[in-house]
């Protein structure tokens, strides 16, 4: 009895060890695979098919609740998928090699066989040459831009169109809507690219496309997130309020997708189309960061160092924008060109600004942004209108005398803020709430000012350089008409865009817009008499004899002087706003000293 009792502890220990061994040898409980949506949002997923519980509660459909085929490298699913991909790739290469051999044999039936020709035939059908040819994809494949997936569920279908000589493709109108089955985890970019499986079925040239996509994604290096958020806030608070070419919700959806891809080790299986769209978003983001850096006030660093940091963002995007994305016709590329042109203009690089502006206009014409295409959602339609009006405005502001390019604005954007625009196609359009002033009003008022007053002034100046001298009566009557048109425009300005002293605007954005609009009104108010005075001087006009003409001439001087003095006061008071968001250079050559000297000269002429 004693022996058996003594041996029982040892036997029980061995039995428990055996049980533990069997437990560890048993396969673990099968776990359900989370869908892409839940993986990206880092929430629990029940793995239900076709739509999991989390996606069902969010109202997503089966096309958006996608399950990855490969969970981890080294898993059974990964190995099987990898083997199938390799087998499929080998079959494609063998079929292509057979096709090339048939072509070569057919050619030999008509061409006399010579040693040189036989050598060429052998080389042309060798596997190395075949693989080299396969690595050259058709050009049109690289241009298509499918949607980029986001979590919002926006769905804006694209509309195919062609115009001019530009290669117009299906525009990524819904780049912020439809999910992509190849998103999420994929092998690291640093791995051997030859091991990558084709991203698309029946992909002749897909291997080269994957390499190109990988090289494009390799150029994406993002700054720290807190710095990007800070500079984006500067951009939207300072520059976007004057030229809102970007629909903010859709941009932030692409922006978060870009961050997810940039921070992931798994990029290799992202197809070329999505990589191109990500590169366009990256170029647009860098332009916005450059403007934000230029607008940000800095106490610790010098002005030169501050500007050089802004130029670093622009230089990062230059290769992508002018090489990789130059042949891509898409709305984000147009927006990126506009934003970078804005930055260069603020930085004083006039020649580069003009080049980027011209490229943006040509791409916009190819995409037919000036035409309201059917089937577009309200949000996309408004974004297209804004981009076109911005292109046209930049071109017209920088036009030289006698320029043949003078695009019209067409239909102006609706004064509806981004958050109120309808994002789904075929849904009824939404409107701005009656008690909420729109941030888009400033942009529309600027377009109207340029169309109704500034463009006629520019045309009259260009016409004056080509014609004989103009009578005094015509000069005075033209100035009076333009001044009346300006006052009508000023009277129609919405109440939230009027400067109030003391300032009572509820938002700082409206205060900035109101101040800038007041400055543009004053500079135009001073520009009208200044143009008339310079015409009178250049035409060697004699002193008018009628009392009415003398009164009108004196009114020109008073109007020019009063507007110049008030403009100088605002510029002194709002120094930071003027430094970055001052009047456009094409019609802002109005300095107080120049007005005073001109006024004194003319007053002396009259009094003599």
From TrEMBL:
Residue ranges constituting the Zn(2)-C6 fungal-type domain according to the UniProt record: 34-67
GO molecular function annotation: DNA binding; DNA-binding transcription factor activity, RNA polymerase II-specific; zinc ion binding
Gene Ontology cellular component list: nucleus
Swiss-Prot/TrEMBL keywords: Coiled coil, DNA-binding, Metal-binding, Nucleus
Stretches the record annotates as Disordered: 1-31
Subcellular location: Nucleus
Coiled-coil segments: 76-103
Low complexity composition bias: residue spans: 1-17
GO BP terms: DNA-templated transcription
Pfam families the record matches: Fungal_trans (PF04082), Zn_clus (PF00172)
InterPro entries hit by this protein: AtrR-like, XnlR_reg_dom, Zn2-C6_fun-type_DNA-bd_sf, Zn2Cys6_DnaBD
Name of the featured protein: Zn(2)-C6 fungal-type domain-containing protein
């Amino acid at each position: 009895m004693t022996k058996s009792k003594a041996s029982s502890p040892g036997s029980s220990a061995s039995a428990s060890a055996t049980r533990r061994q069997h437990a560890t040898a048993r396969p673990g409980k099968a776990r359900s695979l989370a869908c892409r949506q839940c993986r990206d949002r880092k929430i629990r997923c029940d793995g239900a098919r076709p739509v999991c519980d989390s996606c069902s509660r969010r109202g997503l459909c089966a096309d958006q609740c996608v399950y990855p085929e490969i969970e981890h490298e080294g898993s059974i699913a990964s190995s099987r998928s990898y083997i199938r991909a390799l087998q499929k790739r080998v079959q494609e290469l063998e079929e292509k090699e057979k096709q090339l051999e048939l072509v070569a044999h057919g050619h030999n039936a008509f061409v006399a066989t010579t040693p040189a020709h036989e050598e060429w035939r052998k080389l042309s059908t060798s596997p190395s040459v075949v693989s080299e040819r396969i690595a050259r994809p058709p050009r049109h494949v690289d241009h298509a831009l499918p949607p980029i997936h986001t979590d919002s569920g926006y769905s804006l279908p694209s509309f195919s169109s062609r115009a001019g000589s530009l290669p117009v493709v299906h525009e990524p109108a819904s780049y912020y809507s439809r999910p992509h089955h190849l998103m999420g985890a994929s092998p690291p970019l640093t791995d051997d690219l030859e091991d990558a499986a084709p991203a698309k079925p029946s992909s002749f040239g897909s291997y080269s496309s994957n390499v190109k996509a990988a090289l494009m994604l390799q150029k994406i290096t993002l700054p720290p997130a807190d710095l990007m958020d800070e500079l984006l806030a500067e951009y939207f608070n300072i520059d976007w309020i004057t030229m809102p070419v970007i629909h903010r919700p859709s941009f932030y959806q692409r922006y978060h997708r870009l961050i997810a891809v940039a921070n992931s080790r798994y990029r290799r299986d992202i197809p070329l189309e999505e990589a191109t769209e990500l590169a366009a978003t990256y170029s647009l983001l860098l332009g916005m960061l450059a403007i934000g850096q230029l607008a940000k006030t800095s106490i610790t660093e010098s002005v030169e160092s501050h500007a050089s940091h802004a130029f670093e963002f622009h230089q990062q995007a230059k290769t992508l924008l002018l090489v990789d994305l130059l042949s891509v016709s898409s709305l984000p590329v147009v927006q990126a060109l506009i934003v970078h042109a804005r930055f260069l203009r603020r930085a004083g690089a006039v020649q580069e600004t003009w080049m980027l502006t011209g490229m943006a206009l040509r791409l916009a014409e190819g995409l037919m942004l000036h035409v309201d295409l059917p089937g577009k959602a309200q949000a996309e339609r408004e974004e297209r209108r804004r981009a076109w009006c911005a292109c046209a405005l930049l071109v017209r502001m920088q036009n030289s005398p006698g320029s043949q390019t003078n695009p019209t604005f067409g239909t102006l954007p609706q004064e509806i803020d981004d958050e109120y625009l309808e994002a789904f196609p075929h849904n009824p359009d939404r409107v701005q709430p009656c008690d909420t002033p729109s941030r888009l009003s400033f942009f529309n008022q600027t377009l109207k000012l340029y169309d109704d007053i500034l463009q006629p002034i520019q045309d009259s100046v260009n016409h004056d350089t080509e014609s004989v001298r103009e009578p005094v009566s015509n000069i005075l009557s033209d100035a009076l008409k333009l001044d009346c048109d300006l006052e009508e425009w000023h009277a129609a300005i919405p109440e939230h865009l009027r400067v109030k002293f003391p300032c009572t605007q509820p938002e700082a954005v409206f205060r900035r817009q109101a101040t800038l609009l007041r400055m543009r009104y004053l500079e135009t108010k001073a520009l009208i008499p200044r143009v008339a005075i310079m015409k009178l001087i250049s035409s060697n006009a004699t002193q008018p004899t009628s009392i009415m003409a003398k009164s009108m001439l004196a009114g020109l001087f008073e109007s020019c002087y009063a507007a110049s003095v008030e403009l100088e006061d605002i510029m002194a008071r709002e120094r930071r706003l003027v430094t970055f968001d001052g009047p456009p250079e094409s019609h802002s050559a109005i300095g107080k000293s120049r007005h005073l000297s001109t006024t004194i000269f003319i007053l002396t002429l009259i009094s003599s």
